[in-house]
Amino acid sequence: MKAILIPFLSLLIPFTPQSAFAQSEPELKLESVVIVSRHGVRAPTKATQLMQDVTPDAWPTWPVKLGWLTPRGGELIAYLGHYQRQRLVADGLLAKKGCPQSGQVAIIADVDERTRKTGEAFAAGLAPDCAITVHTQADTSSPDPLFNPLKTGVCQLDNANVTDAILSRAGGSIADFTGHRQTAFRELERVLNFPQSNLCLNREKQDKSCSLTQALPSELK
User: Fold this and answer.
1) Prediction pTM value
2) Staple 111 to which of 47, 62, 127, 140, CB 3.0 to 4.6 Å?
3) In the chain, what is the greatest distance between 2 CA atoms, to the nearest angstrom?
4) Closest residue by Cα to residue 195 from 214, 220, 168
5) Is 60 helix (H, G, I), strand (E, B) or coil?
6) Is 72 part of any domain?
7) Coil, strand or helix: which one is 8?
């Protein structure tokens, strides 16, 4: 998972004033915050033939390379950083003015451009004109175990347990899960102009019905 971690001070307090023990314990004081976030708005990570086949229309032209954070994405993340600054000031964790003290804020980002730039944009919104370093693994060409524990072999998942968990959340089967969301798929077909797409027209030539869920059935591998 791509993420940014922003721990303040050194300790995350895992309970809140609404804790079952709040009445008998001294009033709790928030000492630190950890924020886990995905990257901001990015361009698609790849351009596939399927993307061309599902719509007769041209896809938007992105102002950045595939997978990179967009200017708008960076702008929105900066707004998020500004909001979090206000929240942390209100909670007494950051001063209202000036830069955070050394060691008070840490930002850790995955190696991809979009995650590194997201960290930089967040820092710019959180503390404008302050030299907050975005920490990233030195080797940006290899997966970071912190964010990619499966890919790097740090841990493994049991396939049978994972499959059971997914099917349980899906209501028993992927087909049922898809079937309960036909309204959303119809809207997606409308946005894509799917009935006029090459994929749909080719299915009709073969006397096959045309819908996204029939042309591209969901499956669990």
Assistant:
1) 0.80
2) 140
3) 73
4) 214
5) coil
6) yes
7) strand
